Amino acid sequence: MLKFKSMQSRLTTIFIGISFFTMLFLGSCGIYGAVQENNRLIAEFRKDMEENAQLQLEWQTHSALSVIENCYQAQVRGELTQEEAMQRAADLVRNMRYDNGKGYFTIDTDQGKNVVLLGTEAEGKLRIDAKDPEGRYFIREMIHQAKLGGGFSDFMFPKPGFSDPLPKRYYTLEFAPYHWVIGTGIWLDQIDRRVALREKAFVQNMKEQVIRTLTGLLLLEILFVLLAIFVGRRLAYPIMVATKRMRELGNGKLRMDSQTEAEMEALAKRDDEFGAMSRAMNEMNQKLYDNQQLILRMAQNDALTGLANRRHFAEFIQKCSADTMFTLISLDLDHFKQVNDNFGHQTGDAALLILAEVLKSQFTDALNVRMGGDEFLVVLTGKVDHAVLEERLRTFMRQLIAVYQQDEGLQCLTVSAGIAYAKEQPVPIEVLMNQSDEALYEAKACGRSCYRVYQG
């Protein structure tokens, strides 16, 4: 057992031991927190990627369905026979592509007979009993989801030109007049690759943060050791105060109570080593608190535009009362993919930043949300004057296009919008979002660069 000849040596040893284990605990907590935060961000990124992919599949499938609907209307008007209308619809859908030609559509009857599949030999054949390697009757599941009003199916299926099946997510809709099931899908390995790249970046960033934290803690520990050498009996009280605060930091308590704050302020006014230690602790405490607040802001705001993200939007909705009257405006840039393909993602990011700034200047009284990609949402609460709101929207669209016209790389961009009002009584936010999306799809179908109001 250690024997100390003086209180100074005893206090010095105790102080060094406490500071060392506190720093060790803080370092462990910091590393653990960084790992947990990294895992959470990766999980949220994957979730966002899957949600964006599902929204894309739904939008693309509705686009294909609108093509079939146009052929059916031609049949109804007597311009085509049913056989001619069905053949034209099948030919048009067979030739439709998206995602640089990787995305295609299929059509099956509700009895499982294939109508459209890239012109392969599968067309015209019954595949109701088709199973994937895991034994799932995926054609039956696709038909079932379509008859429910549209839904997703997961199964294993090979890519065109390959034989090895891969996980695929498929969205299907029913076109009842022809007893057709129309759908399109995405292979999940595309999402896996993007998540892997993002995870690599997150891990590298986490490593850098851990190194900085450990370096800071090491330097702080060295400072505490040096200060401990000069500790004496008359400094017992300051040690007690500092130790108390270090324990609070170790327990994650970044905000001090009034008593501790007064003690630390008195200690910080000293001109000796304990004053320096107190100020260093206060600085560390402030930095930890600032970092905590920064993480909270990053969790609620889109990193590129600074607008609210989906998480912020969800929290905002949860805080609203059940009788809140919402008005939603769904926005989507037209020809955004063309800008990314022709001028690069930096130009695309610039277009998104411009939209965000114009949006914030025009809708200062709303929650402006970037839902993902080039999709945005304006959320207003309370009763609104429809005419005034629509004039504000038109002003926003004119201002945005005027800015885009000043840059050659952005001149092709326009914006489409869909408005959904809660007119007489509150409407569930999910219903209102679907309505604003339908109005947006209608604006897109009407030639883009315009807006439509949901009239259902």
From TrEMBL:
Membrane topology: Multi-pass membrane protein
GO cellular component terms given for this protein: plasma membrane
InterPro entries from the UniProt entry: Diguanylate_Cyclase, GGDEF_dom, Nucleotide_cyclase, Rev_trsase/Diguanyl_cyclase, sCache_2
Main location, first listed in the record: membrane
Record's protein name: Diguanylate cyclase (GGDEF) domain-containing protein
GO biological process: cell adhesion involved in single-species biofilm formation; negative regulation of bacterial-type flagellum-dependent cell motility
Entries under PROSITE patterns matching the protein: GGDEF, PROKAR_LIPOPROTEIN
Gene3D superfamilies: 3.30.70.270, HAMP domain in histidine kinase, PAS domain
Keywords: Cell membrane, Membrane, Transmembrane, Transmembrane helix
GGDEF domain: residues covered: 324-456
UniProt-listed Pfam families: GGDEF, sCache_2
SMART domains xref list: Cache_2, GGDEF
